[in-house]
Amino acid sequence: MRNCYKYRGGIGVFDKDGKSIFDRDVNTLANNQIYLPTKSELNDPTEGFCNDYKIISLIEAFKQFSGDVKKQYQELLEKFAQIGIYSLSNNVTNELLWAYYGGGHTGFAIEYDIDILKESLNYNEKFQAIFDFDVDYSRNVPIADLTILHSKDIIQTLKTFLGTKSLSWKHEEEHRLIVEGKGLFDIDYRAITGIYFGYRMQKEQIDHIMDAMKGRGLSYYKMELIDRTYKFAPLKIEDKYSNTAKYVANCIDYDVDELLRNSCVSEEEILLYRDKFIEALESIKNEPYIKDFYIATMASDSKEPLLKIFANTAKGIPPVREFNFRLNDKGELYRIK
Question: Are 218 and 194 in contact (CB under 8 A)?
């Protein structure tokens, strides 16, 4: 599991419309959403800077022949201007980040499983590609040349334009998600794995967040000062709502016999594996981003049967999700990805 952290502020801070930023952040969290700004919305005015003198010099020197190059480069810059960036940190005990982004320890930090977060973003209508990487820090602005226009190394291209910052920002230990899209988007609630409360966060706000996130099996921590040091460490605390019913983001009704009738599964196989199909359907009926199952079938090979379930998605891209299951040597069902 790869974990990264998003610092959020505490109470007493308001947006331009006079609304509480704390309430906004908790509502966004509870609604399983994240906000993806473009580079122009971030707090570093040098965001996206690169040294492109080689490209510009070539365009200027060969104006008669460089029209296509100029067009390609301009299109690339326009695309990067519209890309969504989700800024996280690899460190949840970073004292400066708690001061800057965690409301001076009155706020909280959200722990994400990066792999689940990336996978869930694939089921948003506007997202076609998702990349993540640690930000590079340098004394010098990165250099862009003509090879960038045709490079197959997407990560390096993204790092040149959207993943390199001044050494002054190195303390942030930033990890970025880069996506095709911007604004507010849904995520898989299982991508959120824990909440860290600031050292100065009040009990009332802690209870409010626990209540909003109840039933999800999250881990909760309170930042505490290590005795006789300047350092803070997370102390695990009890979930006040641990006995609450399990949170369910989605629930699909289905008729297993109807699903099997629409497939190529033989009557003999239906008799043999019907209970396993039910077990498989039960295990995925609460998956986010699906609206119904439309077929359950199977494929046999020399090793073991492969149970396949297809579902229509709620987002449209991709329109269909496929879930595959096999049986182990003990006849126990397990999902394969």
Answer: yes
Cβ atoms of residues 101 and 8 within 8 Å: yes
**Amino acid letter for position 151:** S
How far apart CA 169 and CA 163 sit, in angstroms, is 12
> Cβ distance 310 to 295 under 8 Å?
yes
Q: Quickly count: other Cβ atoms within 10 Å of residue 136's Cβ.
A: 13
What are the pLDDT digits (tens) for 273-319? 999 999 999 999 998 888 999 999 988 665 678 999 999 987 666 78
Compute the C-alpha angle 259/263/267, nearest 5°: 95
What is the residue extent of each domain of the chain?
3-237, 256-336
Residue 72 pLDDT > 90: no
Q: Angle at the Cα of 63 (from 71 to 147), degrees rounded to 5?
A: 55
Q: By the 8 A CB rule, do 230 and 95 touch?
A: yes
Residue 246 CB: number of other CB atoms within 10 A?
Answer: 9
pLDDT (0 to 100) of residue 301: 62
